[in-house]
Amino acid sequence: MQGNLLVIRKIALFAEVFLAVFFGVAALGLPYEKVAGFIPYFTEISAGVALGAILLAVAGCIRTSSASLSGAWAAMLSFTAFMACGPESAAGGLPPLWLLVTFVSALLGKRGYWIGTALIFILGEPVRNLLTTLLAGEQPDPASLITPSLLDIWRYLYLLVAGIVGSRVLQSFRVSHYAVKPAVLPDDLSEKKHEASDAEDKEPPAAERTTSIEINTGEQGISDLLSSVVYFMSRNFRAYSSVGFIFDTMRREFILNSFQSKSLYIKKEASIPLGTGVIGKLGTEMRPFMTGDLRHYNAELSYYREEEQINSILAVPIVSDKVLLGALVLDSRDTQAFKDQDKDIMRRFATLAAALIKTERMRFEQEKSARVSQLFYQASHQFTTALKADEVFNVLFSVIPGVVPCTRQISIEFDGDSNTGKVTGASGAAQPDDPDAGFVFPVDSGGLYAFTFQKRKSLIIGDYQQYKDRYFRFFPQEKRSESIRSLAVYPIIDDEQRCRGLYSLESDQPDIFTEDTQQILTTLVENASVAFVRAMLYHKMELLATTDGLTGLNNHRTFQELLGQEIERSRRYNRPIALLLMDIDHFKTFNDTYGHPVGDLVLKEIAACIRRSIRLNDIPARYGGEEFVVIIPETNERGSMVTAERIRSTIEQHTIVSLDKELKVTVSIGCSAFPENAPSQQALIDTADKALYMAKKSGRNRVIPYKNGM
Predict the structure, then answer these.
(1) What's the pTM value of the predicted model, to 2 decimals?
(2) Domain contains 373
C-alpha cells in the first residue's frame, strides 16, 4: 500500500511540474484568458490537481510520522494552486484554495516553508497583472502595482494567520512511537500528574502510531517493555520528547529504542557512543543529569535530525546490579521545566525499566540456553554418525552459521609426511585469492594458521583489518583480504594432544565473537575433535580390512570386489576394461638368498614402482605372494600393453638399496581385456594368468598379451 502511495505521489508531482511549466510558457506569450480558453476546464483541472496533491501529502505524512512536505513539493503545490485561480477569483477576494495550501504547507512542511507559499500568492498577483499589461501592449502603472489595496491587506493577513495557525497546530500534536499497548501505571509512579495528563488512563489517540526499533536479535521483548515505560513517562510529564535508549554492550553505544515526541525530527536510527554528550555521559557517570538551561553545556542532542530549541533536559541511567542497561530521557523547550521531585519519579521509572529488562533478559537467556542445548544435541548426533573426516567438518559447516554470522568456513587437515596443511573443504562466499579445496601450505610458514598448528591453541581476531599489514594467513606474499573482519581458527586435537587439522571461520562483520559465542564454538570444536579422531580410527580399520599391510595396495578381497564393480560398469556402458597380472621373476630364490626382510623390502619397492607407473584411476592390488594386479578401466588389450611395458621398464631400471647391497629385480606381466578376451570376471583373471604363464615360459622380464589357444 505504501509503495502504491509513493507511485501516486510521484505521478501527481510530475503532473504538477508539467502544468507549472505549461502555465509558465503560456503566460509569457498569452494573456490568462487565452490560456484558460485554450485548455478546457482549465481552472477545474488545476484546482483538482492541487487538492489531490494536498490529500496525498497529508496521507503520506500520516503514514510516516517523521515525513514532511519537501521544499519542491510545497513550491509546486503553491504554484499550481495560484494558477488554478484566475484574475477574477483573486480580484473577488481571497481564494479558499490559497488559504488551504498555506495552512497545509505550515502543517506538513518544515519550519518556515509556509512563508514561501504565502509569498507566491502575495507576489504572484502583481506579477501576473504586470505580464498581462505588457502583453497587451499597454504601459503599466508602477504605483498601482506596488501599492496594496485594503483587500490585498486583508488577504495578506488571512494568509499570515493560516500559516501561523498551521505551524502551531503542528507543534501541538504528539508523535509517538511505542511497541505495545501500555499496561496500567504502577501506583508508586502515579504521584505526579500534570493538568495536561487528565487522559492518563485512556487509550492512546488514534493519530499516534506504533513503532519499535529492535536493538539486538532476541531482544524485541525488551524493546516492547521499554516502549511502554516511555509511554507512561510522556503521560506524567509536560515534556517535548520522552525517549528511551537501550545500551548495546558490544558496540558500547546507546541505541534509540522508542519515543513519544511533539517533534517530527526524531532520528530513529540514532546511536550515541558511551561518554559522548549528555546521554553518553550517563553511562560513564552512572547518575542522573538535570538542567534547566542546556545552553550552558554546549551539547547537542543527537537524537534529533534537525536542531530543536531544547532548554531543559532530565536524563537517568537504567542500571541493574551495577550493569548499564539503557537510559530514559525527558526534554522540554521551556527553561527550568523539571524539578527535583521529577528526578525522583524518573529514578522510579528507571528502576521499573531495569526490573522489566532484567526479567526479559532472564527469560531470553533461558530460551537461549534451551536453543544451545538443542544445538549441541543435534551436533552430537551428527558427529556420532560421521565416519569420515570430511563428514565431521560438514557438521561444523552446517551448525556454526546458526551460532554466529560467518561468511566463510575452511577445514584443513595435517599431512605429517610433507609437514603441510591441506585445505580439504570450504563453505561460503570466496574472494578470488581465497584458498579452496586442495590448497597446501607449510605449517612452519609463520602465518596465523601455521601458528595455530604449532601452538595447538585457538586464535580469535576481532578485526583482521587492523593487523593485515603485520600478519598473514598462509604465505608472506599472499594478497591481503579486504573483506575479512572477524577471524577465528581452532585446532583439531587428538587424544595425544597432537594437532590433526584446523577449522576456521571468517566474517565481514567485526567483533562477532563474544564470550558466549566463543564458549559455544569451543565446545562444538572439541566435540568435532573427538569425532575427527574416531573418523581417523575408522579409516585405519577400513584400510586394515581393505589393504595389504605390507605394500599398502588393495588386498585380494578388495581387488575382487573392485574388479566386479568395474566389469558391471563396463557392461552397462559398453566400455572395455583391461587386467594386468604380474609376478616377480625368481623371487623365491631371491628371498632364500637375501632373507625375508629384504624380500619384504622388495615387495614394497615393487608396489611403489607400480603406483608411479599407472594413472590415478587405475587400481593396483596385491594378488598374493609375489603377484600383483592392476585394473585398467576404459582400456582395451592394446592400450594395456603400453601401461604394462611402462611398469616393467620402471621396475627393471629401479635399484633397491638394502644396507650395503644394490639389488635389481624384474617382473613378467600377462595382459587380458574384457570383453575382448573374456566374457566374465573369472575368465578375465584366468586369461591374464595364462598370458603371465606364457611370459614366464618365454624367458621372463617381458609383457605378453593373451591369445586364443594359450
Answers:
(1) 0.53
(2) no
